[in-house]
Each structure stands twice: as structure tokens, then as C-alpha cells.
Amino acid sequence: MFKKIGISMIILIMAVQLFSGLVFAAEENNEDVIQERLITQVIGTENFKSGQLNSGQLNALTSVLSKSHHGRNGIIDVDVILRDYTGNGVLDILVVYTDKHDYKYLDIYTITGNRARKIFSGEGNQLNLKRKDFTISNIKYDGRYFYETYTYEWSQLRGRFLRVGYGKTYIRDYESGGNWRPSKPIIRDGRIKTVNDFLKERMDGRMISAEKYLSSSYKGKINADDLKMIVPYGNVTTIDIFNSQRGDWVVVVIRDFWGRSRVFKFVPVREADRYGEYKIDDIIEIQQAR
């Protein structure tokens, strides 16, 4: 594999490593240093060594990155991830920059022949880079702080990423940043976390894994096929706590395959294990809310 790399690439590798070592020590947040560090990481990635990223793709990417100026201040870390979001059989290259406030910047490149082209750029407080799509979440405020989450998926028809989902999740616990928004959301309400983890497994089709978030008594009443019928596949748009005199429960709004917004009541019960402090003891669709 490495025999295919030209002399110019070998020189680039050596120059990048030398330059990074000298300049990075002098100024940690220097934009050029971050770029050189990024290229060094791409060259050293296990994906390249294992043959998932060939020399032609590597040459194309390093050419683009060496000319690109992200212009983002305070970048302290960078990561390279491979996904085939465009579905053309060639791995797309995701570059994630992280600044000193833990804010994320995402650039996605696709390789066509020996040319790398940027096809997406976005930013947010949280990124979730899944196999077929990804989400970007930002902290917003409407009297309470919440995550506003958009899901993006590649459209072969449009030739670009489209927003295919929206979610709104209120933040109940966070560290105050001393400004207009929480600087670092921490462990959310345990009941919301359990329901959120369950929904991730269900929407990814991992029904057996989803069952670990159910209470012992509820698991004895239903099976994986029942769960598919009870909780439809779709985009989760809202998760929040509903306070009631009879006991609090988690309200979830799911936009199903047909575009209908359906409301569900998840009843939590304290039953701690390594997956969390709470389990789901019942799931009820509120029919009149359709």
C-alpha cells in the first residue's frame, strides 16, 4: 500500500511532522498548526493503513486541507472519521474540529476520482455521526434551556444533505456558564436519559438492546415484536418530563413514517443497574393527541 505513495507524499509527511512539532509548541491555537496536525492525523489514520483510504483519496484530501482555512479561533482538537453517507461506495471524510469551549465544527468531504469536494459544513454543541445519517444539536432558550436537534441525510436526487428530522429536548441539569446559556450540560434527568437511550436503540432496529431499558415486570409482558408495534419508527421531536400529582412521567412526541405527530407516555420506575437508575414500566400512546 505505502509503495503507491509518491515521493511528494513522503516529503509532505516528513515536512508536516517536523513543522507540527516545532510550531505547535510555540502557539497551540495557530490555525496553520491545526491544519498541519489534521493532515498528520489523516496520514497516520488506521483507515489508510488498512486500505480503506487509498493513496489517491489521501492525496486529494491533503491537497484540499492544505489550502483550506477554517478561520475558527480557539481550536484545540481535530478528529477524522470515515462514513459512506453519499452511498457511492467511496468513503466520505468527516473532519470534526473542537474549540476550547467544547463546541464542534463539522466539515464533510466526498472523493470523486482524484478530487475532494466539501459537501457539508455545520456546527453545534453536540454531534452524533451515525452510519446513515447524523445529528447536530445546539442549546437554545425559550424560558428553559433545551437542545434543538436537526437530523441530516444525503439525498441522491438533490445531490446534497437535507434536513430530515427535528427534535427538542429540555435540559434539566447543567453547569452555569455565567452567561445567557449553560456552558456544560451534565447528567440529564435519569428518567429522560433512560427513555432517550431506549429510543435510540429502537430507531436503529436493535430491539433486543432496547429491552435492557425496560423494567423486569414490563419485559415479562411484551417482546421485541410488541415493542415495534407499540413504538413506531420515526423521528423523535420532543422528550420532556410531565409533572402530575399521580406521579411524573416522560412525554415523547414521534413523527412517524406518514408524517403524523404521535404522543406517548413513558412511565418510569426506579430500578437501578449498570444502564441507569430508572427503567420503563409502561408505554402508552395518548390517542386523543393525534
Walk me through what this model shows.
This protein starts with 6 loop residues before the first helix and ends in a 5-residue tail after the last strand. Strand 12 and strand 13 (261-273) form a beta hairpin. It has 290 residues and is an alpha+beta fold. It folds into 2 domains: 1-123, no CATH class; 190-289, Nuclear Transport Factor 2, Chain: A (Roll). An 8-stranded mixed sheet has the order 5-6-7-8-11-12-13-14. Strands 1-2-3-4 form a 4-stranded antiparallel sheet. The chain contains 8 helices and 14 strands. The chain has helices spanning 7-26, 31-44, 46-49, 55-67, 190-203, 207-210, 216-219, 224-230; strands at residues 75-83, 92-99, 104-112, 115-124, 126-129, 134-141, 145-155, 160-170, 174-175, 184-185, 234-242, 249-256, 261-273, 276-285. Helix content is 28%, strand content 39%.
Q: N- to C-terminal separation? A: 57 Å
Give the DSSP E fraction (strand runs of 2 or more residues): 35-45%
Main structural class? alpha+beta
Low-confidence stretches: 1-30
Shape descriptor reads: elongated
Overall number of structural domains: 2
Largest beta sheet: strand ordering: 5-6-7-8-11-12-13-14
Number of strands: 14
Helix amount, in percent? 25-40%
Q: Rg to the nearest angstrom? A: 23 Å
Q: Which sheet architecture does the biggest sheet show?
A: 8 strands, mixed
Pattern of helices and strands: HHHHEEEEEEEEEEHHHHEEEE
Number of helices: 8
What would the average pLDDT be, to the nearest integer? 76
Q: Characteristics of this structure?
A:
290 residues; alpha+beta; Nuclear Transport Factor 2, Chain: A; four-stranded antiparallel beta sheet; 14 strands; elongated
